[in-house]
C-alpha cells in the first residue's frame, strides 16, 4: 500500500469536486483498506469497551450512516469484498469496495455536513488504514 494514507478529502480536492459542474446523480467508488485493530485514538467517545477489528468498526460506521444516506436520497448500489487487482499494481489490494449513488453533488455535501452523521463518522476513521473515494458522473 501507499505509505501515505488517504482518509479525508483535501480542501483543494473538495473545491475541485464542488466546481466540477456535475448536474445529475454522482456515484462514489469507495476503495477501503481496514486497520487490523480499529484505532479510536481520535474518537475515544466512540470506542467500544473491548478492541474490535477495523472491519467491525466499519460495520458500526455503516449502521450509523445508512439512515443519513437514505435521508439524503442516496443509495448503496454495491458493497463487496475486494482483493488484488487483475489489472493494476500487484502491490496494491483493497479489503472492500462500495458504490454509493447520490442524487447530486449538493445532496452529497448536505449528507457529509449533517451533524447527526458527523457524530458517528469517527468509526470510519478508526476503521481505515487507507481509502480512495472516486466521484463518477454517468455518461
Short synopsis of the structure:
The protein has 139 residues and is an alpha+beta fold. It contains five helices and four strands.
Mean pLDDT value: 95
Instruction: Strand order, main sheet: write it out.
Output: 2-3-1-4
Overall CATH class: Alpha Beta
Summed up, the domain count is 1
Unreliable runs: none
Distance between the termini: 31 Å
Q: Based on CA inertia axes, which overall geometry fits?
A: globular
| CATH fold assignment | Alpha-Beta Plaits
Summarize the biggest pleated sheet: 4 strands, antiparallel
Give the helix level as a range of percent: 25-40%
| CATH architectural label | 2-Layer Sandwich
Assembly of the depicted chains: single chain
Rg (C-alpha, Å): 15 Å
Number of strands: 4
Indicate the proportion of strand residues.
Answer: 15-25%
Structural class: alpha+beta
Q: What string, H for helix and E for strand, traces the elements in order?
A: HEHEEHHHE
Amino acid at each position: 500500500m501507499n505509505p501515505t494514507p488517504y482518509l479525508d478529502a483535501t480542501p483543494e480536492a473538495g473545491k475541485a469536486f464542488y466546481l466540477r459542474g456535475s448536474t445529475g446523480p454522482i456515484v462514489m467508488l469507495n476503495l477501503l483498506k481496514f486497520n487490523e485493530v480499529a484505532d479510536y485514538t481520535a474518537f475515544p467517545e466512540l470506542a467500544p469497551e473491548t478492541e474490535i477489528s477495523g472491519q467491525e468498526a466499519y460495520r458500526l460506521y455503516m449502521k450509523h450512516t445508512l439512515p443519513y444516506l437514505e435521508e439524503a436520497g442516496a443509495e448503496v448500489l454495491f458493497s463487496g469484498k475486494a482483493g488484488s487487482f487483475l489489472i493494476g499494481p500487484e502491490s496494491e489490494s483493497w479489503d472492500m469496495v462500495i458504490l454509493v449513488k447520490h442524487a447530486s453533488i449538493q445532496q452529497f455535501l448536505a449528507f457529509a455536513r449533517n451533524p447527526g452523521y458527523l457524530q458517528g463518522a469517527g468509526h470510519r476513521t478508526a476503521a481505515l488504514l487507507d481509502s480512495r473515494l472516486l466521484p463518477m458522473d454517468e455518461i
